[in-house]
Amino acid sequence: MDKTKVSYSLYLVTDSTPAILGDKDICHVVEEALKGGVTMVQYRDKQSDTGLLIKTAKKLHAITKKYYVPLLVNDRVDVALAVGCEGVHIGQDDMDLETARKLLGPNAIIGVTAGNVLEAASAVEGGADYLGIGTVYSTATKRDTKHMIGPAGVRNILEAVAVKMDKKPHVVCIGGIGAHNVQRVLLKASPPQWPLDGVAIVSAIMGSQDPQQAAKELATLVATPAFPL
Ligand code: TZP
Ligand code: MG
Q1: In the chain, which residue ranges form alpha helices assigned H by DSSP?
Q2: Ranges for the Thiamine phosphate synthase/TenI domain (predicted)?
Q3: Which atom of ligand 1 is nearest to the CA of 206?
Q4: What sign has the CA pseudo-torsion 156, 128, 131, 37?
Q5: What CA–CA distance (Å, rounded) separates 92 from 112?
Q6: 141 Cβ inside 6 Å of ligand 1
Q7: What is the pLDDT of residues 120-157, one digit of tens each?
Q8: What are phi and psi of 47, to 5 degrees?
Q9: Distance between CA 117 and CA 17 in Å, rounded?
Q10: Binding site membership of 177 for ligand 1 (Cβ less than 6 Å)
Q11: pLDDT exceeding 90 applies to what percent of the chain?
Q12: Ligand 1 and 149: CB distance under 6 A
C-alpha cells in the first residue's frame, strides 16, 4: 500500500472491552464501519495476550485489505511485523519512534500520540507519518487521561510546532469525538497553516448498534466543513 495515498479523514480505533464492544464481534463491527466509510483502522487491544492479538490482527487485516484501507496496530511493533500490516501507533510509553522505524522500514505508517508541544515536535523531528493529538475531551474509553486539551489546545500545539518545523506530517485528534461535535472540533482545532486531516474515533463507532450507519454519518460530517459562525 502506498502510504502517500492514504486518507486520514475518518480513523477508526478499535476497543474490545465489554463496555464498548459489548457482545458484538470485532471483525463484524470493523467491516460494517469500513462499509460506512472509515478510511483507516487501528487495532487497539490492551487486554489480549500476544497470541490472540496476532490472530485477531490477521483477521482484521484480511478485512481491511478488501477495502484498500490501512491497518495499524496500537503499541505493538512485534504484532504489526508478525501480521505484515501497514503500521503502528505508538504512545509516549511505547517503543521509541527511531527503533520502530528501524524495525518496520520506510514504507510503514507510524503514528505517535502527542499531548503537548514537546511531544509533537519530537515526533515530527523523528519522522512520524502522523500525529494523534489529544485527549480533546474527557472520555470513558481512556480513563487514565490526566488533562483534556480541547480543540483550542490541539490548535495551540499545531501552531507552536508549525513555527519551529518545516515538516508537517498528517494530523488527527482524538478523545470524546462523535457526530455531535466532529465538525466543530475540526473547525476549532485546525490552524490555517496546518489543518487537521481527520479525527480518530472509538466509541462513537465501536459502541454503536449500527456501526455502518454511525461511520456513514461521521464520514458525511467530516467531508462537510462547518461554517465559522
Ligand atoms: N487516546 C486519547 S483519548 C482515546 C485514546 C485512545 C480514546 C478515545 O475514545 P473515544 O471513545 O473516541 O472518546
Ligand atoms: Mg500506547
Answers
A1: 18-21, 26-36, 50-66, 77-83, 97-104, 117-125, 150-164, 182-189, 203-206, 211-222
A2: 10-205
A3: 11
A4: positive
A5: 8
A6: yes
A7: 999 999 999 999 999 999 998 888 877 899 999 999 99
A8: -105, -40
A9: 31
A10: yes
A11: 93
A12: no
